[in-house]
Amino acid sequence: MPYLVADERVDIESIIPDLSAAILTPGTTLPGNLNFAVSSLVNEIVEDRGESYALYNTILGALECSKLEIYRRMVAPYEDEKQKQNGDVFKSALPPSQTTLKDFN
Fold first, then answer.
1. pLDDT of residue 36
2. How far apart are alpha carbons 55 and 45 in whole angstroms?
3. Which of the two residues, 91 and 104, has the higher pLDDT score?
4. 40 and 75 in one domain?
5. Taking 70 as the threshold, does the pLDDT of residue 14 lie above it?
6. What is the pLDDT of residue 98?
7. How many domains is the chain built from?
8. Does 40 fall in a domain?
9. Rounded to whole angstroms, how far apart are CA atoms 88 and 3?
10. Residue 14 vs residues 7, 18, 20, 35: alpha-carbon distances, Å
11. Both 38 and 57 in a single domain?
12. Angle at which helices 30-49 and 6-23 pack, to 10 degrees?
C-alpha cells in the first residue's frame, strides 16, 4: 500500500522530482526510461538484500499492488469519465455503479 505515514515518506519524496525530471527528459522515450528506472531500483534492492524467493515475491507483490492502485485511483475514474463523454462500448452492460459479481454468473 502506498499510503505511508508522513515521516516515512520524506526521504523518498525528496528524490521523486529529480527522478521524474530524468525520466521525462526531452528526446528520450518515456516507456523505456520508466522501465529502466523501475528495473534499476529492483536491481539495487536485490543486490543489497541478496536473491531469495521471498524478496522476489515481495518485489513483484509491491509492483502488482502499485499497478492495481494506479488503475483503481487514476485509470478507472478517467475511463468512467470518457465513457460518460463518448458513450459506452458495452451497450447491454449495466453501468459500473450497478454491477456486482452476481451479474456475471
1. 98
2. 9
3. 91
4. no
5. yes
6. 72
7. 2
8. yes
9. 33
10. 12, 8, 11, 21
11. no
12. 130
